Amino acid sequence: MSARSRNLPRRSCLSIPGSSEKMLGKGPGIPADMVFLDLEDAVAPKEKEASRAKIAAAIRGNDWGDKVLCVRVNDWSTKWTAYDIIEVVGNAGERLDEIMLPKVESAAQIVATDMLLRQVEISAGLPIGHIGIEAQIETARGLINVEEICAASPRLETIIFGPADFAASMEMPVLTGGVKIDEYPGDHFHYVYNKILMAGRANGLQVIDGPFLHVRDSDALREYSMRSRILGYDGKWALHPDQVTVLNDVFSPTQEQFDKAWSILDAYKEATEGEGKGAVMFGNEMIDEASRKMALKFISRGERAGRTRSTQA
Ligand code: GLV
Ligand code: MG
Fold first, then answer.
1. What residues have their beta carbon closer than 5 A to ion ligand 2?
2. What are the residues whose beta carbons fall under 8 Å from the beta carbon of 80, sequence distance 6 or more?
3. Ligand 2 centroid – CA 38 distance (Å)
4. Quick one: 235 and 259 in the same domain?
5. Is the same domain home to 166 and 37?
6. Whole-number Å distance between alpha carbons of 61 and 42
7. Which of 158, 159, 165 to mutate to test the pocket of ligand 1 (most atoms within 8 A of CB)?
8. Which terminus of the chain is more exposed, N or C, with fewer CB under 10 A?
9. Atom of ligand 1 nearest to the CA of 165
10. Ligand nearest to the CA of 177
11. Pocket around ligand 1: residues whose beta carbon is below 6 Å from it?
């Protein structure tokens, strides 16, 4: 399902307020891998209903290149969710790849979204299963249920951590979400990051980190986003075009890592196929089948980021 966008890169996922025709017009020109046109927290309640048509028109009227194109609807505790989906998916046409569902708390909410999407796809003449789902985990209940949420529908493409709402849900004594807390001895979200990552990977999903709210501080963003990058996340949200450049860099393997991964594959192939060995020395390191799997991840990420091999072993 959702074959076009499932495996596309999402190093940078840019939020665009759906109420702003100006921002909707600028979106296609910003080099983010993925954009989501927001009907949720970036849009004031009195603007939400009028924004649906603006979003559908922007999807139809602009050239979004090969970006992953998504609309964030409102969560199931509001009065808007079903109507957001009916009006936007019903009028946006085939270029819309996905719906993002915020504040997901149960597998049932994903199943309800899946069933509604199916009906809207049929009535809009879209292929059944065309629209993928991105799910945000940003409440205590959502985190508790993340494993069944990630397994709830074949439409799911990504699972996303929402640090700002999560901090509010946990009643953390902070006023800015998704930034470093110097008073805490370690990473206050380490458990959360790992729990979401495991649930996502166990179900073949891409796993995405949410926003960093100090939007003018690119150095701090670069440093902070290494946390989720090193754990294995695929990308992170951008709230401003300046953040996109940083994230595309942070979430791509370096040329050196990409070349080394290729050299490991070559050495391993030679050892297993040529010499009939399962493990072999690569410089000062022992490499084996697990090294091959790790190298393949660097290569697929590097290729998605447009890298080509610069050295031959
Ligand atoms: C994102 O939606 C967040 O709440 O961090
Ligand atoms: Mg949120």
1. 138, 162, 165
2. 39, 48, 49, 73, 74
3. 11
4. no
5. yes
6. 22
7. 165
8. C
9. 4
10. 1
11. 136, 138, 162-165, 177-178, 210-211
Q: Is the dihedral of CA 236, 228, 198, 303 positive or negative?
A: positive
The string of pLDDT tens digits covering residues 24-66 is 999 999 999 999 999 999 999 999 999 999 999 999 999 999 9
Q: HEC string of 34-67?
A: EEEEECCCCCCHHHHHHHHHHHHHHHHHCCCCCC
Residue pair 35/14 in contact (Cβ under 8 Å)? The answer is yes
| Dihedral over Cα of 82, 124, 51, 149: its sign | positive
Place of tokens 């979400």: 177
For residue 291, give its domain range: 255-304
Q: Could you read off the pLDDT of 115-141 as tens digits, one per residue? A: 999 999 999 999 999 999 999 999 999
Residues 56 and 77 in one domain: yes
Residues 93 and 203 in one domain: yes
| Residue in the block written with tokens 């470093």 | 180
| This model's pTM is above 0.70 | yes
* Ligand 1 atom at shortest distance from the alpha carbon of 211: 5
Angle at the Cα of 224 from the Cα atoms of 223 and 226, rounded to 5 degrees: 75
Q: Which residue's alpha carbon is at the smallest distance from atom 2 of ligand 1? A: 162
